[in-house]
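Workshop exercise sheet. Pairs work together: one partner reads the sequence aloud, the other fills in the structure field after running the prediction. Swap roles for the next sheet.
Pair: D.N. / O.F.
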Amino acid sequence: MRAIDYFDKGAEACPDRTAIVDGETRYTYRETRAVTERIARAMWAAGLRGEECAGIYSHNDARVLFCMLGIMRAGAVWVPINYRNAIDANVEYMNYAKTAWLFYHSDFKDNVEELRARVPSLRHLVCIDCEDGDNPSLETFMQRGTQADEIDWADAYGNLDRLVGLVPTGGTTGAAKGVRVTSLAWGTMTEMASHYWRSDGDPVCLNVAPLSHAAGVVAFTMFTLGVTNIILPKFDALEVLRSIERFRCTHLFLPPTAFYALLAHRDAGKFDYSSLRVFLLAGSPVSPDKLKQGIEMFGPCMCQSYGQTEAPMLLTFLDAKTLAAAAAGDHPERLRSCGKPTSAVLVAIMDDRGRILPAHERGEIVARGTLVTAGYFNMPEATAEIRTYGWHHTGDVGYVDADGYVYIVDRKKDMIVTGGFNVYCAEVEAGIMALPEVRECAVIGVPDDKWGEAVKAFVVFRDGESLTEAAILAHCKAKLGGVKSPKAIEFRSDIPKTPAGKTDRKSLRAPYWVHSDRGVH
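Structure field:
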């Protein structure tokens, strides 16, 4: 099916249920559908035909979801623009995607003027919250489509090859690439999410991560379950904790860094979390010790999924029941796993020669299935690179155990070779995160005359806590052994993040490798 068909089925099933809550404003499914129909008609009236790229540039706001659904209904291609990106990065990506439409919040109107000047393909600009000079508000724009005829662009097969989105990769290793998300891949993700994330009762999903990233995808898939999507403008640990109790939230998605902030908050024990059924962690590997703490704090609702922009959200899934059992001592090693492959994909481990590896051997995680992207936009060589040996290459290092559980060790580029041994950053970070005083940490390799590369850790403590470097190093040697233990610890008040909210190892590494002609020793 087309992406919008999934939303419409949810809207038809529960038209009078609240679909979106944004502050004091509530919208039913019937009202939300009507708004998206008005957006689509206005786009058609303005001349939209075919797969034109339409960007959304805003912090969290109900109108982001309206525009996302309206773009999909009109048959345009959703382009999420990360408002935390540098403007040069957004200009580069929008030019690459030949973005023709931009729906934006007035908070970013100064940046939009620069985008208009530097992106020649940009022809239609709509300010979602107010009139902005010559650019209409969303309400004014929708009025322009009142008399427009509906364009039925669907086909009998569900438009499987039609683009739903052109979604940028993180861009941490260079310019972002546009991932071609087709109706087939989007539909696969949506149907698996409705299966793996379903719960009893009336679902309520709290959305606090940026809707321009994975949270927007989660919010969309939740519509198929008839969920009430609660929109918070940004992540604030205390407000998240309060909102779980206030709205009796059943579903919550966060990246691990935000999850750690919840655990570390001094008021975390003051609220009722008994409504939670699916507390989903995704985006990067999770500290098993913090995961166990999360189960103790939030109950048997913690779960994990593994995916990437090229295969969104659900390559693997680790359900709440399995995680709760692992925390109680039944296969405790599964606290380090990201779960088993989901029903629509094959997942394997491959060496550099294309050989599929047996259980417990480490190599690159590869996948096949309808969840996988159709490729990168106008980048045939990059597409061919991730298709080597007939599999999709994730760029992640891991292994599969004898029971079929997948374990992520690290990104290939985050591997440190020290004294001839491979050390994976995520393993060292997990070891340090086992210390209750530690809120967050990041590990990189730095040049070293003796070892080639030395393991260096950056550590952020919980409020009011501290440890000496010697104490942390002694803990690491006991838990990880001498090879994997850091050679140095640097204490910081925070760890830099990419615009996608992940640890920015590139910026951490830069000062140490600035005088080197390559990034490894």
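Discussion prompt: The mean pLDDT is 92. What would you look at next?
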